[in-house]
Inverse folding.
């Protein structure tokens, strides 16, 4: 604005108003203004973005560390993971909100409610632990069955809410219903599986398993990024994610396998507890080195599928970030995309025998 005001003042006082010299002066000050504007605005915008990113990251890390400490130290037997529920719910509901908002913005609230029901359904066995009792081993529903029941309840909740909202055949009922159900299943079931994984085994074994799943998956993202930047030549799937390369994928597998071995060799013994698997399906999986490789390869591929799934939907919807719940970081789904796809293979690997010999009482 200072440059503009000075330019106007010079133009008014310049002799030969309307002459070619006046046009040269206008060009000079105009170029000066544009040059300063393009230099200042990106810096200020990038500076504010960095501040937001650091602030958001600091808050998330602080809350996560505090809740992990509480959960590892004070969770009662039979209700392991109770202190992590606020964090899991935040990421579960936030992801569902982001996804539903892109698919059909007006159904975000309904989708989040259904997702919350599916996620919390896995916590029902905790009620016995909080009451000082033991969850019955012969319960026909088991522990995983509650997620199926929660999924069905979430489905009919969506339908009931759409009945209340129905205003005619052209009101978008079908689109909202399908979008809400898809979001609740796509997000709710994986997060419910995280609750189940945390409650597996004795002591803090389940916490070690959950942290290992997250560390291996996220280290694959980081390893793939740096390997791709350094050695990437052949594009993996450019129509969905132009930056991903085969070399990056290989780098992600190597990095995540190393992190997996470190977690199995040191994290599990450090936090204690014992595996729910007494006899591994494949005996060799109990070895930290082989278990780390299995986790690294499986979770790198699964995480990539989750990442590309989000990229596909964002491209179809024409958006860069999935949402704005996390200032500086983007949407919640941008953080959880790979974890959603990684939890199922991680759970199967653990119940097959990975980390079955990596903890102590």
């Amino acid at each position: 604005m200072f440059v503009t005001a000075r330019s106007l003042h010079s133009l008014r006082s310049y002799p030969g108003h309307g002459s070619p010299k006046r046009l040269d002066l206008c060009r000079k000050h105009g170029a000066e203004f544009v040059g300063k504007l393009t230099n200042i605005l990106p810096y200020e915008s990038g500076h504010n973005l960095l501040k937001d990113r650091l602030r958001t990251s600091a808050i998330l890390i602080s809350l996560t560390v505090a809740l992990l400490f509480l959960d590892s130290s004070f969770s009662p037997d039979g209700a392991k993971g109770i202190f992590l529920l606020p964090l899991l719910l935040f990421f579960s509901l936030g992801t569902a909100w982001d996804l539903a908002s892109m698919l059909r913005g007006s159904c975000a609230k309904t989708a989040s409610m259904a997702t919350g029901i599916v996620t919390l359904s896995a916590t029902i066995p905790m009620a016995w632990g909080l009451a000082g009792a033991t969850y019955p081993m012969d319960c026909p529903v088991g522990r995983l069955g509650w997620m199926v029941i929660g999924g069905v309840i979430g489905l009919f909740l969506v339908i009931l809410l759409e009945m209340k909202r129905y205003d005619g055949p052209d009101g978008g009922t079908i689109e909202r219903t399908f979008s809400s159900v898809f979001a609740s299943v796509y997000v709710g079931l994986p997060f419910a599986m995280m609750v189940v994984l945390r409650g597996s085994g004795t002591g803090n074994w389940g916490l070690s398993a959950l942290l290992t799943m997250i560390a291996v998956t996220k280290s694959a993202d980081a390893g793939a990024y740096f390997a791709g930047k350094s050695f990437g030549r052949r594009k993996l799937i450019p129509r969905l994610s132009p930056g991903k390369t085969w070399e990056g994928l290989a780098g992600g597998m190597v990095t995540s396998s190393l992190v997996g071995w470190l977690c199995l060799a040191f994290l599990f013994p450090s936090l204690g507890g014992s595996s729910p698997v007494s006899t591994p399906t494949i005996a060799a999986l109990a070895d930290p080195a082989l278990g780390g490789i299995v986790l690294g390869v499986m979770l790198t591929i699964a995480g990539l599928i989750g990442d590309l799934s989000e990229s596909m939907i964002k491209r179809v919807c024409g958006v860069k970030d999935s949402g704005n719940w996390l200032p500086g970081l983007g949407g919640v789904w941008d953080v959880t995309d790979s974890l959603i796809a990684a939890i199922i293979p991680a759970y199967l690997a653990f119940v097959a025998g990975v980390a079955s010999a990596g903890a102590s009482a």
